[in-house]
């Protein structure tokens, strides 16, 4: 049985490999830690080829690696061991352009930041953890909430424990660095899950002042976390990220986004000195002109349901596109001809624009063997089409 030290050696060999060095030349952010799992690269300007990456969801990784995600999120040793297995398996099987930095993450999924406001978190064996219940059942409950404690709130004790233990495990390997996680969820994402989506959307119509109070509380909580993190590590704050899968039509409209969300995202961009990455897996086309107002934006996620052509029209050419495919339609349920056609369509629309193509969010829908075979086929087609 492989020990953690065996896995560490294999991973370091991967980071030093010729293929990894070759992949590094495609991305402009390889000198910066990603500070969470599921690394994403910002492509360089004027590349002769378009980089592509493959990223299964953790639920699929639980089947690939035959692990229980409850253990992965409970034990520092399991967290380290299985992320190493994941990276090694990825490198050996998905011949994509993912760059492997000499760093290790600590991340508990979507609940990482949500947990800072409550201990009512439930983890599952084969899917990501989630809140047991909404924390703010009545509006007055907001008054009892306090800005999270960097050391003691939610999962923070476990994060600090993992950080110390993983650092101790790898101390003989000075080549590696353990990344202390940063807050990446946008204020709307946190607020809507604390209050409950239906309740919060009704609040937007019936009680705008309350919505601003909650958004202010979440935004201030995030800023305080980042200040504390910077002091704890004795490092400057990195640029921010905004993960916002709940920003999507028809969940909310552009006027609601402009009134209740955009001002806080702009404020955070000014606080961090820029937003490295804006993300939503939803239908975000209607928000493009608003998102384009966020200063210092470096990369925008383009979901499978958003209009890539309009993004090219609206966004400054210096902003990179992280173009994600529909995991079912474009890969798992597709054939070789349609895979090739989709990739060529993206390349035609994005000609001259800085972009990367990402096949991700895979969950097992057939047999694991069949799904992995189809993903690998897509990877081969992508490599062939994008290199010509």
General description of the model:
Helices cover 46% and strands 11% of the residues. It is of the alpha/beta class. Strand 7, helix 13 and strand 8 form a beta-alpha-beta unit. The protein is globular. The mean pLDDT is 96.
Could you provide a short overview of the structure?
The protein contains 17 helices and ten strands. It has helices at residues 4-15, 18-24, 58-64, 69-72, 76-93, 111-114, 156-169, 187-195, 197-206, 208-233, 254-260, 262-272, 288-291, 308-314, 327-332, 336-349, 368-386, and strands spanning 52-56, 103-104, 121-122, 130-131, 177-178, 240-243, 275-279, 297-302, 320-324, 355-362.
- Percentage of residues assigned to helices: 40-55%
Question: What is the global morphology?
Answer: globular
Low-pLDDT ranges: none
The largest β sheet comes out as: 6 strands, parallel
The structure class reads alpha/beta
Mean pLDDT: 96
Beta-strand content estimate: 5-15%
Instruction: Evaluate the radius of gyration.
Output: 21 Å
Oligomer: single chain
Strand order of the largest sheet: 1-10-9-8-7-6
In DSSP terms, counting alpha (H) and pi (I) runs of 4 or more, how many helices?
A: 17
The counted number of beta strands is: 10
**End-to-end distance:** 42 Å
Q: What is the string of helix and strand elements? A: HHEHHHEHEEHEHHHEHHEHEHEHHEH
């Amino acid at each position: 049985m492989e020990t953690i030290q065996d896995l560490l050696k294999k991973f370091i060999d991967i980071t030093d490999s010729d293929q990894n060095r070759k992949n590094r030349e495609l991305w402009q952010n390889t000198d910066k830690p990603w500070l969470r799992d599921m690394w994403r690269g910002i492509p360089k300007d004027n590349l002769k080829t378009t980089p592509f990456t493959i990223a299964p969801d953790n639920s699929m990784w639980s089947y690939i690696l035959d692990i229980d995600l409850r253990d992965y999120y409970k034990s520092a040793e399991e967290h380290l061991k299985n992320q190493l297995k994941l990276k090694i398996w990825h490198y050996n099987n998905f011949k994509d352009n993912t760059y492997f930095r000499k760093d290790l993450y600590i991340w508990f999924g979507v609940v990482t930041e949500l947990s800072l406001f409550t201990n009512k978190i439930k983890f599952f064996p084969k899917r990501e953890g989630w809140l047991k219940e909404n924390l703010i059942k009545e509006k007055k409950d907001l008054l009892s909430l306090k800005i999270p404690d960097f050391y003691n709130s939610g999962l923070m004790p476990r994060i600090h424990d993992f950080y110390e233990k993983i650092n101790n495990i790898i101390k003989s390997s000075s080549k590696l660095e353990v990344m202390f996680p940063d807050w990446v969820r946008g204020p709307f994402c946190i607020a809507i899950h604390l209050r409950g989506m239906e309740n919060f959307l009704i609040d937007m119509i019936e009680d705008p002042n309350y919505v601003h109070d909650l958004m202010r509380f979440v935004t201030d909580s995030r800023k305080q976390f980042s200040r504390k993190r910077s002091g704890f590590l004795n490092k400057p704050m990195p640029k921010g990220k905004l993960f916002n899968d709940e920003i999507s039509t028809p969940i909310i409209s552009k006027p609601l986004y402009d009134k209740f969300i955009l001002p806080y995202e702009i404020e955070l961009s000014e606080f961090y000195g820029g937003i490295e990455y804006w993300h939503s897996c939803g239908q975000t086309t209607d928000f493009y002109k608003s998102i384009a107002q966020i200063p210092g934006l470096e990369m925008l996620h383009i979901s499978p349901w958003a209009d890539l052509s309009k993004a090219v029209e609206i966004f400054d050419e210096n902003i990179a596109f992280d173009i994600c495919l529909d995991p079912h339609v474009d890969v798992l349920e597709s054939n070789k001809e349609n895979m090739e056609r989709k990739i060529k369509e993206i390349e035609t629309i994005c000609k001259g624009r800085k972009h990367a193509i990402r096949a991700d969010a895979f969950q097992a829908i057939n047999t694991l063997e069949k799904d992995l075979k189809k993903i690998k086929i897509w990877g081969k087609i992508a490599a062939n089409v994008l290199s010509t």
